């Protein structure tokens, strides 16, 4: 007869398996897209350029819309999202709901996602879009979009952190608002001429997928109970 697996070890195995499956599902299309970008796959490069030319042309011809694009670029900056959304919600979960492990998960996932996105930029080293008569300057590499990645990470992590504490209807409303925010941020990067379409798609895939994989590994985890000697000390 096969020995029964320890319940703690069994739970750990299930959590790690879920996390790995999620990570693979995200990593495969992301790696393929990065490869196509890195090798300058002509159909993708041409399509990206056509989209960025059309988007920036519209922005250049509409001053009011251009001001909106510039404003959204500021309020959706990664440090703004972390400072004014990710951190306050983490503190609320920690102190308001007394879920320290859940708050730690959120903080660690957001920090890890930011670092992975920065590393991926250095690996792919895609240059920023080149457009006629540029109306703004953007530094650094282009793939994946930092705005898209970090907004997707923060929004997804925040939604997952607060899910147990809000009514289902409210949570669904928050999901809709979060999705609209991320889509608007992605569109802003195109209209600003800061990123190609494949850059923002990669950012969303990385941000949402990383948060989902991390949460799959976190769900069901409990901190180890203190030993009798620790409790008596």
From TrEMBL:
InterPro entries: PAP2/HPO, PAP2/HPO_sf. It comes from the Bacteria. The keyword Membrane applies. Keywords: Membrane, Transmembrane, Transmembrane helix. The chain crosses the membrane at residues 20-37, 79-96, 103-124, 144-162, 174-194, 200-221. SUPFAM superfamilies: Acid phosphatase/Vanadium-dependent haloperoxidase (SSF48317). Residues 105-215 form the Phosphatidic acid phosphatase type 2/haloperoxidase domain. It holds the Pfam family PAP2. PANTHER family: AT30094P, SPHINGOSINE-1-PHOSPHATE PHOSPHOHYDROLASE. This is Phosphoesterase PA-phosphatase. It comes from Nocardioides currus.
């Amino acid at each position: 007869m096969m020995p029964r697996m320890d319940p703690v070890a069994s739970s750990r195995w299930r959590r790690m398996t879920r996390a790995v499956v999620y990570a693979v599902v995200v990593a495969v299309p992301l790696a393929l897209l990065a490869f196509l970008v890195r090798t300058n796959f002509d159909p993708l490069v041409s399509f990206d350029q056509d989209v960025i030319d059309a988007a920036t042309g519209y922005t250049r011809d509409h001053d009011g819309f251009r001001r909106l694009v510039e404003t959204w670029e500021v309020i959706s900056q990664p440090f703004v999202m972390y400072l004014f959304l990710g951190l306050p919600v983490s503190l609320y979960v920690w102190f308001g709901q007394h879920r320290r492990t859940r708050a730690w998960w959120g903080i660690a996932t957001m920090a890890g996602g930011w670092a992975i996105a920065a590393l991926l930029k250095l690996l792919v080293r895609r240059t920023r879009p080149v457009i006629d008569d540029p109306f703004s300057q953007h530094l650094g590499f282009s793939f994946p979009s930092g705005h898209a990645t970090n907004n997707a990470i923060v929004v997804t992590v925040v939604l997952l952190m607060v899910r147990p504490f809000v009514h289902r209807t409210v949570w669904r409303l928050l999901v809709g608002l979060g999705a609209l925010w991320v889509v608007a941020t992605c569109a802003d990067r195109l209209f600003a001429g800061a990123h190609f379409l494949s850059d923002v798609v990669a950012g969303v895939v990385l941000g949402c997928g990383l948060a989902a994989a991390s949460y799959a590994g976190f769900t069901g985890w409990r901190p180890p109970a203190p030993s009798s000697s620790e409790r008596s000390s």
